[in-house]
Amino acid sequence: MILISIVGTVLLWLLCRWRLRRRWTVLGLVLTVAVSVGAFQLWYRDDELYNRFENLELFNEWVPKEKAASYGFFYTFVHSITDVLPDPPEHYSKERAQEMLAQYPEGNIDTKVNVIAVMLESFSDLSVLEPMGLQADPYAALREIWAESCHGTLLVDTLGGGTINSERSFLTGFTYPQPDYGHSTESYVQYFARQGYVTEGSHPGHDWYYDRQNVNRNLGFDQYYFSENFYGSRTDAEYAPDNVFFSGVLELYQNRDPDTPYFGFHVSYQGHSPYVATERLYDTEYVERGYLTEASYHMVNNYLGSVADTAENVAAFTESLREDEDPVVLVFFGDHKPTLGNANSIYAELNMDLNRSTDEGFRNFYSTPYWIWMNDAAKEALDTDPAGQGPDIGPYYLMAQVFQVCGWTGPSYLQYQQELRQTLSAIHAEGTYLENGVWTKELSVNSQKLLEKQEIMEYYLKRTKYK
């Protein structure tokens, strides 16, 4: 880096001399371009090298602008070129993407019902621990509701973090990696707005966290509520626990205009790591001490105690809408599994297989539950009952599953997703695919063609400013 700076300085000095021969000018320009391109290819676009320069002692890693500043302005600016100008998919053109989308004319929602979706922080089903001695069922409050729902498994892209990957995949249908949403972008929120829905949501965290205050506006939300403008006045805690959170979600729904269909998307905070390692906070013991370290014992039980509390709050919220005269569809899903110990060491103590080269290990690592529930008014309006086993899918397909359950056609991109997921039900960040129920890194020729079409459509929608 120092050498590049010295060479650049010398070249600039030569170029600024009063009487510089033309050939030296040309040579200087050529060398400058060559050195710049070489440095960019070798160093500036290298993610691993870039991450070594992270300095979070004076900056907040959850504020995108501050995290970028921690690397230094120039380094961040040059490195970000790869994000601003990513390589397009093979055979991509704007015209081709538009032609592909035009093959699926957008469908209207003829029978409108209210939709409330809730993403639950670190909510996962650890029932696989049962053979090892799960002493109580933290999901007991949800068992009957799951039986009434389309209940399945999400195969998310991260463990213990990366909340916004699941969150924004659900709202857009986009696969990993997510763009920065620096401009208004097509999304399912935008689609609901086009269909005459009011679109709002809430999160008991801060508005700057993951830049949600700006991103959610660019995704099409009419209003979004955070700790600063809603939950902070309802609790003394920095982050509202689930009893306050679900009370707020219900309040927002009940304060809606009853003559306008409603789409709400809410993100909880309770359940976020770290989990107390020095004492058990809940009366119920879910996992015995056994071979666990004392710290691990407390952390696992405190996590599962939080899950049980979340389950009870979800159940109470659901029951409050069961007899509602207005039709409402509820969608719940976990964003990722929890962080348990350093490098998730507690999973190993629990003998959970996290070997991602096997089907069982991959699912243990990346799976979370989802369920789609309807009150009686929605069942009658849509003439359907969602109860049953749902497919294993990535979070980018969850809205497509909601639309299928409701009997809606939806926007163009979602329609193609309905086709694609019949063959590729997961397109994972690790470069692994669930093709016809089997994990693989090598797709068949037919699946490659299907994926290429999806990539072209997605690239176009990600990069095109929504009007």
From TrEMBL:
It is a multi-pass membrane protein. This is LTA synthase family protein. One of its GO terms (cellular component) is plasma membrane. The keyword Membrane applies. The chain crosses the membrane at residues 24-44. The keyword Cell division does not apply. It is found in: Cell membrane. InterPro entries: Alkaline_phosphatase_core_sf, OpgB/LTA_synthase_biosynth, Sulfatase_N. Pfam families: Sulfatase. Gene3D superfamilies: Alkaline Phosphatase, subunit A. Pathway: Cell wall biogenesis; lipoteichoic acid biosynthesis. Residues 114-380 form the Sulfatase N-terminal domain. Its main location: membrane.
